[in-house]
Every structure is written in structure tokens, then in C-alpha cells.
Amino acid sequence: HYQRRLSHLLVDEFQDTNSIQYAWIRMLAGADGSVLVVGDDDQSIYGWRGAQVENVRHFSRDFAGVQTIKLEQNYRSTGTILEAANAVIANNEERMGKKLWTADDKGAPIMLYSAFNEQDEARFVVEQVEQWLAKGRRADEVAIVYRTTAQSRLFEEYLLRASIAYRVYGGQRFFERAEIRDALAYLRLIQNPNDDAAMERVINTPARGIGQKTLSILRLQARESSLPLWQAAQECARQNLLPARALGAVNGFVQLISAMRERMQNWTLGNQVQGLIEESQLVSHYEKEPTEKMESRVENLRELVNAAEAFVIPAEDEDAGMTDLQSFLSHAALEAGETQGEAWDDCVQLMTLHSAKGLEFPMVFIVGMEDGLFPHQRSVTEAGGRLEEERRLCYVGITRAREHLCISHAEVRRMFGSESHCRPSRFLDEIPSGLIEEIRPRMQVQRPWSSPKLPEYRKSSLGSDQDWPFRLGESVSHKKFGIGTVISFEGSGEHARVQVNFNRAGAKWLVLAYANLTST
Fold it and tell me: What is the pTM of this model?
């Protein structure tokens, strides 16, 4: 029927078709149909959703008299950007083969920044954005592109510090994501069991057999007794006001929260968050479903641990008697409360590489170019062409840039609560060196500081021509955290920070001018 009605078929985005869609195309075309497919096998990046790039190559085999037209002239990017993209994608063996070119100028070289850690990377990128805006360019001409959603957090933080409006394209800000809000609700409940909103959010997350009927009984008990929901749950348990199964579930939840509160009293903030996501079984809950979306949720939870590890309580919060956890929750609430820019607003765009497909920007930052992050560790260890798909994703990222492209990677990155040295992405080795301008970090953190007077230091502006008060590896003492070892520096002037790995409190970032550290 449809073969008689449809004599001509046009299929767009052919590289994203799956096996069923391809079979449907062949069935509709029949033996005599005319078929035109438009696609780019170098931009096939949705294998995890079932797309099969093989369909592009099989088309010539499955249809007679196929004529292939290569659209290789590019009207978007500069010659340098296209040359880099061509060089990277040429390393894929399973492709039709094409070479993009432009009649426009070669353009500026690709900037490559080797950061010493992820904070330095975020600082550099945001400073570059500030310079872009100082030239009179628009914020919405800038995109910061990353492999995993968890990477957005630090860039959000540094953009907020710089008062630069931003939007997470196709997603939510870090502290607005469901799994992060769940974890924060657990932390709020541990901090204050009488927080009814927090309790309602997590009492059955992950599912533990406490349904709406049980929750209604708890709410009724709370209203009639004028008690917070937490105390009402304890009353219901004592008076056996719940069916046996529901009673067991509620008792289990109460015991879980009570045990965590007791154990975590003297833990560092980072350990509290790490313990929470493990003991609440949030991570194991998402790991049961090994999909790209669920894996992203786990990575976000682990990035929350990184955020807690790096958190430094502001002096005004400490003076007000707030604990690290109280201050951290307050900070998270403020960030989640910030209004995200709308699609049409003049704001910097943050997005994953997958979300960037089909978009273009005058200035693009591809961040986190490290093996294990991009290409993702999963693509390196799994067979089935996953590495080639990661390379296609890199090709897509590079070709989003119209005028300027900046690539960055960190030498040390904190992932899953611990720091590790990172190898630059293998894709960087595939870009001809003549296309790249390497930007070196402006700080020389190895040099000792000659002056012992802190007030003089506060008036200085630290940079590449300034010395630091301590050496990497030097033992220092802090009034609150005790003895520790200097492991990193970042920033300059009044924004200079030092990271110290304390023997009791773990790694902490401190504002250098106010940390009052002393050598030991």
C-alpha cells in the first residue's frame, strides 16, 4: 500500500537511524522506490541510544545504483578548526571518508591550556570569557562544552563568582538536579530531623516500601500531635499505628537516619557527603540500571563529594557559629535559587558534547580533555566501536566553533573523592601541533616566598612574577584544622587560594590571605 503511494522518500539525519528504522526505510522503498538519505557518519554519536552508523555504509550495498554526493565545503568554521577536525576524525577506520574545507581564512590557532587542576581550568576559562566580554562581544556567543554533566559544577561556580550570566543548555544547574536535591535533602535531615520537606523527599528515595498511604498516616499523626514528621514517625512506631510491613519500613528509615546522625558528628564535610550517598544507597540505586542517564546521575553524586571536599566555610559563617554542613547547605540553596537564563537571554551556554550537536558559536571551550574523561573510560575498556564514537563526538565538538576554539585539560583532577594524575586526551595527539598555541599557567607555584609578613602579602597581587608564601609539600598549621601539607595553589591577589591536605580534616581549599597558616 505505502509502496504504491510513496514513490520518493527523503530521510534526514540518516546517521542516527537504528536497525528497525532502517528496515522500515527499505520496506517503504521497495524495489522501485526513489530514496534520498542525508547524513554524516562522522556525526553519528548516539550509539548508546541504538543508532547504528553501519546503516550509512550499508546503504550502498542494500540499494542499487547509489550515487554519493559529498558536501565538503564548510561555511561555518575557520580553516584551522576544520583542519583539526579532519585530522582527528581521519583516525577512525570505519567511515565513508570526506574532508571539510572552507574558502574563508585560516583563522586563529587553537588555544590549548594545560591546567594544574580542575579549579585552575575553570578559573582560566572564566577569565577568557571575561576578556571576550571586555572586547564588546556577547556572552551568548560563548559555549563551554564538556563530556559529562558533572563537569558543569565548577564552571557554574566560577561564572557565579564573576557575575556572568549562564545557562545549562538542555539540562539543569548542578544543584537543581534531582539526584543532588535528594542527597542534599538527606543532609538537611541529618542536620535537622525536624525538616519536614526534606523528610518527605527522601523517606522513600530510594524506594523502601513507604508509599503514599503510609505517608498520609504519618502526616495525620503529625497534625494531630503538633509534631514534626520525624517525631510523628517515631510515635507511630511506638504505638504500632502502622501495618506490620509499613512499620518495618518506617522503623528502618528512622534507624538509618539516626545512625548516620550519630556516626557523622565528628566527620569532615567530605566524609559526611561520601557516607551519606553510600549508606542511603543512592549510588547503588542508580548503578542497578547501567544506562547513560543513570551513569550521569552517579557521576553527579560523586561530584557532590568533590564539592564538599573543596568547600571552605566563609569567615562570616564561621563567626556566626555555623558548622561546615550548615554553611555548605546554605551555599547550595543559594546556587540552586539563582534564576537560570532563558534560551533567548545574553548568557554563556554550558552543555554536554551531545547537546552541542547542531549548534554553533563564535567561541567554544572544550574542557576536560583527558583520557578516562574524554574519551570516557567506558569507551576505552569496552569493545564494539565505542572509542570511534567518542572520536566522532570530539569531531562534533571541534566543529561547533566558528571563530575561536580553546581546549583545556587538567594535570590533576579530583574524581570520586580522590585526586589522580591525568593523561591528556589521546585526541589531542591527533591534532597537528602547528595548529595549536599552548597557553601556560601564569603561576610559578614552586618558588618559595621570601617575606614572612602576612599584611604585606595581602597588599600584593600574586601572579607569575610573584612568590608564594609556602612551597608545595611544605608542612603548615591551621588554628582549626591542625597540621597539614600544602598540595596546590590557585588564583591571584585577594582571590589566591591554597589547598592543604590536613592530617585530621582531609584536603581543604583556603583563601590564602585569611587562612593564617604557619610553617611547622
Answer: 0.81
